[in-house]
Amino acid sequence: MSASPASSRSIPYALGAELAAAPAAFVAAACTGSVALLAVALQATAASAGLGLLQWSRHAADRSAAAARQAWAGVAAVLLYGMGGLAALYEGAHKLGQPEQMEAPWIALGALLFALPALAAALWRCLRERGEIAAEAGRRLWTWRLILGQLLASCAGLLLALAAVALAGVGENPLFDALGGLALGPLLIGTAIGCGAELASAARSERIEPRLREAIAAWLAGDPAVAGLERLVVMRIDGLLVVAAELRWRLAAAVERPQAALRIETALKAAFGQVDAVYLAGDVDEAATAAADAADTAPSR
User: Fold this and answer.
1) Which of 108, 111, 258, 93 shows the shortest CA–CA distance to 186?
2) How far, in Å, CA of 103 to CA of 218, rounded?
3) Where in the chain does DSSP place strands (E)?
4) Engineered SS bond to 184: which of 39, 228, 293, 300, CB 3.0-4.6 Å?
């Protein structure tokens, strides 16, 4: 569930844009009483929390810690987007029932126009890195999709709020602002559902079936050059299935072990088509090698 270097480079741009949008929208919402702007502020806050945790995962000490932090980023996004969507629906319905004229709509428009270029630039940067991710991993990674989805939702939310605020200000009709809040509610809830689906998909793709690990272990142990299996790790790294094994070799001659390792690597990839990379290490099992030598030199009867 780890992020690739390319997808990680998108995070600071997206995080910076969302951190700029959140306080601007909160201040403007407090000054104008705009429900649409409040929804935008909640959306930017949810995105900032999730992206902040993704940024934090880049500094983890190991891959397991990074994966845990990335999972928490997805969970935080689901919870905050969901609660933000419910709050936007509530505030929109409340204003629809008790309409109040928005004050100083130019402040609201200024805040939205301030945030939109930053989010558009972050989205453009994220889209540019799609090719780099494909070159690195051969498939789209879940962190990139999570960042892209949140940026698309943020831009859509800003445009919806901009239209609602402009119509409410020009027509002096608070109904449009209330409708903007009601429209942003489902957008936030839909974003929460999308983040949850992406998180679940990533968890399924990262999971290694125990039967697969057992089958690989049995296959390695059955090779004639292998005396025993000390340690086996089967895991996904950036979407690639990697097998790392520490073996006890039967071969005493140092020149024979690299040839045996290459043969095993090729045969293992052929036997298990989903395996992308194989790393083999280990020492010679002297007892097994001595027994094999004794069997070869023993006189036949």
Assistant:
1) 93
2) 72
3) 226-237, 240-249, 277-284
4) 39
- Indicate the pTM of the whole model: 0.68
Provide the pLDDT for residue 205. 64
Distances (CA, A) of 32 to 132, 137, 183, 292: 43, 47, 19, 86
Q: How far apart are CA 59 and CA 139, in angstroms?
A: 24
In the block, residue with structure tokens 């999709």 = 145
Integer Rg of the chain from CA: 28
High-pLDDT (> 70) share of the chain, %: 80
pLDDT digits (tens, 9 = 90+) for 26-80: 999 999 999 999 999 999 999 999 898 888 877 765 565 666 677 788 888 899 9
- 161 pLDDT exceeds 90? yes
Q: Are 173 and 167 in contact (CB under 8 A)?
A: yes
Token output for 22: 């959140």
By the 8 A CB rule, do 261 and 246 touch? no
Which residue, chain included where needed, has tokens 């959140």? Answer: 22
Q: Are strands 240-249 and 226-237 parallel, antiparallel or unpaired?
A: antiparallel
Does 212 or 238 have the greater pLDDT score?
212
Q: Which residue has the tokens 């272990």?
A: 217
Token pair recorded at residue 265: 């690597």
Alpha-carbon dihedral sign for residues 208, 214, 218, 221: positive
